[in-house]
């Protein structure tokens, strides 16, 4: 098939909030610096739902959503030597160009390589065009440099993390976003230390992976906060020690957490995307040194606020994208740690579906309240 267009099935987002249209699309061959992959499995992340709902200022329609996947390289474009047909890859929305002139890739302080960010945010491949069209020839936008709700997709080679073939791609898809993000927020962004106290707002897959990583870092107290008490079972299993449902308490949640801990927590994490929750998370951080990390993605137009006094008195407000992991160097290492039995991933998968045509069912499952990750195996 190399060099030829492929006809395959995809779940197409034609407009916000409309069920995805399961249809046959045409996927063009990869151009220079690009890779065409066969998607093996795809997990839904809340960010897919958020964009589908029309909440992302960069959301473009019609498009192919999806960014948490495991895939196998089908063909490569001119000049690509980092991967070859048959390689197993995890597509990563944060690329890593590793060019000598990329001050971001050179710096140990960040993973935010900007090489293709401009076109990625416009739903296009790096050359400013799309590789997808509907059967009638209408072009389709890409999404987050991944667009994995399709049996085949085209990625920039710098977005492909090559992983060990022994690792099951129907599990490793989770390392393409949510679970890696929570781990990295704890280990890279905040560097939570032994004995620390932690508050986690929102116990979906992202919040739970924060809890899992905090426990592995030796946190002494891990407070899980969620409006849905069903989430506390998994939170406990991953290492949370305290559980708070904001619906069950009097007054603001930040005051409640401060009462529980005397001065607040050493680290707090927003894993909800709600800007009021982000404020509460900052304000329950410890006087003098508490750090609060924004992970959740807020809807278009939303802004955060707090009294500057909260920062003057020593709290820090930070944020993370993909947990600070440098995608092509770090994701393969996380996969190795999974293979070594060091990092649990399977427990996040609460629902499994078969075929890209089931993507709408997976969306429904994610809305159900008892779902952490729904994986669609293609
Ligand atoms: P999810 O929907 O599975 O989980 C969110 C959880 O928050 C749910 O359990 C929900 O009940 C809970 N919640 C909602 N409102 C709450 C409130 N007011 N107080 C307490 N709990 C509340 O989502 P997810 O896939 O785990 O993603 C979490 C967030 O992280 C989303 O905003 C997503 O877009 C974002 N995200 C960011 C990154 C990043 O790199 N920064 C990566 C992945 C996901
Ligand atoms: N496009 C949006 C924001 C979306 C956003 O913040 N995305 C997160 C990843 S969410 C993964 O599930 C992110 O890391 N962004 C960094 C980046 O470069 O996109 C907007 O507000 O415009
Ligand atoms: Zn995501």
TrEMBL record:
Its EC number(s): 3.1.2.12
GO-annotated molecular function: carboxylic ester hydrolase activity; S-(hydroxymethyl)glutathione dehydrogenase [NAD(P)+] activity; S-formylglutathione hydrolase activity; zinc ion binding
Cellular component aspect of the GO annotation: cytosol
Keywords of this entry: Hydrolase, Metal-binding, NAD, Oxidoreductase, Serine esterase, Zinc
Occurrences of domain Alcohol dehydrogenase-like C-terminal (ranges): 205-337
Keyword Flavoprotein: no
Enzyme type, top EC level: hydrolase
Annotated Alcohol dehydrogenase-like N-terminal domain residues: 32-162
Similarity annotation: Belongs to the esterase D family.
Protein name: S-formylglutathione hydrolase
Species the sequence originates in: Chrysochromulina tobinii
Entire-sequence positions represented here: 331 to 708 of 708
């Amino acid at each position: 098939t190399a060099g030829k267009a492929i006809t395959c099935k995809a779940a197409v987002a034609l407009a916000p909030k409309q069920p995805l249209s399961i249809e046959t699309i045409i996927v063009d061959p990869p151009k220079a610096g690009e890779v065409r992959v066969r998607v093996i499995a795809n997990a839904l992340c809340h960010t897919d739902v958020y964009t589908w709902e029309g909440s992302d200022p960069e959301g473009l329609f019609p498009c192919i959503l999806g960014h948490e996947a495991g895939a196998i390289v089908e063909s490569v474009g001119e000049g690509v030597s980092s991967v070859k047909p048959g390689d197993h890859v995890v597509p990563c929305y944060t690329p890593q160009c590793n060019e000598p002139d990329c001050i971001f890739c050179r710096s140990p302080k960040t993973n935010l390589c900007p090489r293709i960010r401009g076109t990625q945010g416009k739903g296009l491949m790096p050359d400013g065009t799309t590789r997808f069209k509907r059967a009638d020839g209408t072009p389709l936008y890409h999404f987050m440099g991944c667009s994995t709700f399709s049996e085949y997709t085209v990625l920039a080679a710098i977005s492909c993390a090559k992983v060990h073939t022994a690792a099951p791609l129907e599990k490793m898809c989770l390392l393409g976003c949510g679970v890696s993000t929570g781990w990295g927020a704890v280990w890279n962004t905040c560097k939570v230390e032994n004995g620390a106290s932690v508050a986690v707002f929102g116990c979906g897959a992202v919040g739970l992976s924060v809890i899992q990583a905090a426990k592995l870092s030796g946190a002494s107290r891990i407070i899980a906060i969620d409006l849905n008490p069903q989430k506390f079972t998994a939170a406990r299993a991953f290492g949370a020690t305290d559980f708070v449902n904001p619906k069950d308490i009097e007054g603001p949640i930040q005051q409640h957490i401060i009462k529980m801990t005397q001065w607040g927590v050493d680290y707090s994490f927003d894993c909800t995307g709600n800007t009021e929750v982000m404020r509460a998370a900052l304000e329950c951080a410890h006087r003098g040194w508490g750090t609060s990390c924004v992970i959740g993605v807020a809807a278009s137009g939303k802004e955060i606020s707090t009294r500057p006094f909260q920062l003057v008195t020593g709290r820090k407000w930070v944020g993370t994208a993909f947990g600070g992991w440098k995608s092509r160097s770090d994701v393969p290492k996380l996969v190795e740690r999974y293979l070594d039995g060091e990092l649990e991933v399977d427990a996040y998968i609460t629902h499994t579906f078969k075929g890209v045509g089931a993507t709408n069912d997976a969306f429904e499952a994610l809305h159900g309240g008892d779902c952490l990750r729904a994986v669609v195996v293609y």
